[in-house]
Amino acid sequence: MRVGRLTPRQVDVLLELLVLGAVATGLTSWAIGTQWSKVATVLHAVCGLTVLVLAGAKLRGSVRSGMQRRRPSRWLSVAFGTLVIATISVGVLHATGLWFGVGYWSALWTHELLAFVLLAPFIWHVLSRPVRPKVTDLDRRALLRGSAALTVGAAAYGAQEAAVRIAGLAGGSRRFTGSHEIGSFDPLRMPTVSWINDEAPASTDASTWALDVLGDTVDVGALARRTRPVTATLDCTGGWWSTQAWDAVPVHELIGDRSARSIKVTSTTGYSRLFPFSAVDDLYLAVGYGGEPLRRSHGAPVRLIAPGRRGPWWIKWVTSIQLDDRPSWLQTPFPFE
Ligand SMILES: Nc1nc2c(c(=O)[nH]1)N[C@H]1C(S)=C(S)[C@@H](COP(=O)(O)O)O[C@H]1N2
Ligand SMILES: [Mo]
Question: Which ligand has its closest atom nearest to the C-alpha of 271?
């Protein structure tokens, strides 16, 4: 492909659009727990691989001239470029299943962490150019070449997926969210994940646990006697999923025929999520899995099961369920609390 005929500024605009596209599709794939996630996951991969496709053009263009200008900041630019390549490479390692990470620290988290670290230097890199590229740099030729690069990126993704299947790599059996299966119907093998500051409470004794549902105290021990198996998949944004037969009670049964705008579920750690009230039929409180009680790290004595939603919604160590007047979209999309 002759993307070499693009001006360095045109290459830059295309790369910037691809990075923005990758960020948008990456965040979207975190947010969606249904089949639609597949669209975001594939587009995300295509954006990333297309960045690699354009890397050659970038090297021939602004990288070479940038190095010749010998500004001290050129090494920052080199570090930035290296980080971009590393981020995409770790993404490929996750997608193919060639590398899972170390213990509970997953390859996808490495990818997400690198991507997050990249955002500040990305903005610096864009703003510090001597001649800042503009979207108006995108003439017909640039758009044609940009589309050609995207096509090659998409073909590379197709080739990667085919290779994964031919070689029988773990990446071939990923879920539509892009996650890998771990420990389904085997709670002991199911990983455990908590946010930065969240820790399992010292005591998870069901008999002394205070669970408040709409102002009434619910006996968690009694709850355990009315459960039924609910087979549902916990799909963590760290890149793994696990299906369990949860021993659970529908939240609907506990709150009766009420209505509200939202429903707020809170953990003893203070972590909470707002759910649209219309979703109440898809929420369950689980006290066990496969007939055994939940382990402490998995949210004992009672946790939320939210089929079709990604891991962050599956609140562990639930202490309160309340109706709420605020709309559920009025909360940070990801819990940075
Ligand atoms: N209270 C609380 N609930 C939580 C979390 C947390 O940090 N604190 N992490 C969430 C995330 S991101 C995931 S993926 C699942 C992980 O559940 P597990 O540890 O049982 O695998 O719990 C969710 N519920
Ligand atoms: Mo997660």
Answer: 1
